[in-house]
Write a structure and sequence with these properties.
Rossmann fold, binds cytidine-5'-monophosphate, 16 helices, alpha/beta
């Protein structure tokens, strides 16, 4: 079953009596693993107090577009960028009409307009309003723009009528939102991903390493699992939770990481090298702690194996994706790495740019393949990971010959 683990969901609430069910919906989204923030229209706050949702979500509720203090804390643009998905439930007839026309007079409508993430609406209105041609036309126009419409259901309505227009039940809404993330782009494929830093022992208590947080590799693992792949995440030491439905192999050094990769790639379809592997390791790690003595200490280093190049050179190999962390000449360096290491795709990022790269939550990358470069927008790593997984799936299905073991198996 699809989950919402590690997903950021903005739950929008508009003016309708079904707003009382949004408290249950919020709970269900949280139980499915999502981090949820709430935005309410003024009319919604007449039905249920924002304090209810603040207490349940653990965050202030976003209500006012023109409140400088609220906008300074997390403005509607930041909220739009934060969300992996927006679900407006209940969505009133009036709010749907606002969406159709691209109007943004309130914070929720402005956030929907500013967002790039999937948007779903759960219409809720009196059956008379629902049955009007203009409502159907509005919904058709929203669907044509890729907005998902969940429900409505039929039955008793708060106004005493019986008919279509009730908000879909919270259980159904939570399940349908989770399904949005299950793209199926890598159904039946095995994906092996390396992530995090490696640690190269100097002696039993000291090591050489780097600042890699592992966030991008872990986000790719979650996105690949969402896309239907069987995912193996081979990771150096990081402070991150292993995504759901991902098999995790903990390693420390580059040599251990290579061994784990070689044991896993034989039947893999995709190999993604997101780890920041130490280029060198101490030639002779001391068996005992090195004592402080002379003014200088010399440690001789030897080259580590290049894991991604080793995998790319295997006679029967998966589709191989490498990363390139650069501080200059992004495109040229990425192209060079593609050719030199024999990769199918390189994801390059400028680690000198502020707010992206090592340790940060956002990333902006250049995707370089033999078909040419592409630059997706700057995005939170989880959203970028989903986009990259889709691009990898497309590139695998593209004009280049499919060398993957499952293609062999199918042949
Ligand atoms: O050569 P450079 O370290 O810049 O290349 C980065 C890419 O190569 C990343 O995908 C990284 O995971 C991979 N790499 C590797 N083994 C190494 C060094 C880098 O797999 N020893």
């Amino acid at each position: 079953m699809a989950t919402l683990a590690n997903k950021r969901v903005l739950l929008g609430i508009t003016g309708g009596i079904a707003a009382y069910k949004s408290a249950t919906l919020l709970r269900l989204l949280q139980q499915a693993g999502a981090e949820v923030r709430i935005a309410m229209t003024a009319a919604a706050t007449e039905f249920v107090a924002p304090l209810t949702f603040q207490a349940l979500s653990g965050h202030p509720v976003h209500c006012d577009l023109l409140d400088p203090a609220a906008e300074a804390a997390m403005g509607h643009i930041a909220l739009a960028r934060w969300a992996d998905a927006i679900l407006v439930a209940p969505a009133s007839a009036d709010f749907l009409a606002r969406l159709v026309h691209g109007e943004a007079p309130d914070l929720l409508a402005a956030t929907c307009l500013a967002s790039r993430c999937p948007l779903a609406v759960a219409p809720a209105m009196n059956q008379g309003m629902w049955s009007k041609a203009v409502t159907a036309e509005n919904l058709d126009r929203l669907r044509a723009r890729g907005i998902r419409v969940f429900g409505p259901a039929a039955g008793y309505q708060a106004c005493g009528d019986i008919g279509e227009g009730r908000m879909e039940e919270p259980e159904v809404l939570a399940a349908r939102l989770a399904e949005l993330f299950a793209s199926g782009a890598l159904d039946g494929r095995k994906v092996v991903i390396t992530a995090g830093p490696t640690r190269e022992a100097i002696d039993p208590v000291r090591y050489l390493s780097n600042h890699s947080s592992g966030k991008m590799g872990y986000a790719l693992a979650a996105a690949a699992a969402d896309a239907g792949a069987a995912v193996v995440l081979i990771s150096g030491p990081v402070a991150l939770a292993v995504p759901e439905r991902v098999r995790h192999i903990a390693v420390t050094s580059a040599v251990e990481m290579l061994d784990a990769c070689l044991a896993e790639v034989a039947d893999a379809d995709v190999f993604i090298a997101a780890a920041a592997v130490a280029d060198y390791r101490p030639r002779n790690a001391a068996a005992q702690k090195i004592k402080k003595s002379d003014a200088t200490l010399t440690i001789e280093l030897e080259l580590n194996p290049d894991i991604v190049a080793t995998v790319a050179a295997l006679p029967q190999r998966p589709f191989v994706v490498g990363f390139a962390a650069e501080t200059e000449n992004l495109l040229d360096n990425a192209r060079g790495k593609l050719a030199r290491k024999g990769l199918d795709l390189v994801i390059a990022n400028d680690v000198s740019a502020p707010g992206i790269g090592f340790g940060s939550d956002d990333n902006q990358v250049l995707v370089v393949s033999p078909l040419g470069p592409q630059r997706p927008p700057r995005l939170p790593k989880a959203q970028l990971a989903r986009l990259l997984i889709d691009q990898i799936a497309q590139a695998m299905a593209g004009p280049a010959p499919d060398r993957s073991p499952s293609a062999e198996r199918l042949a």
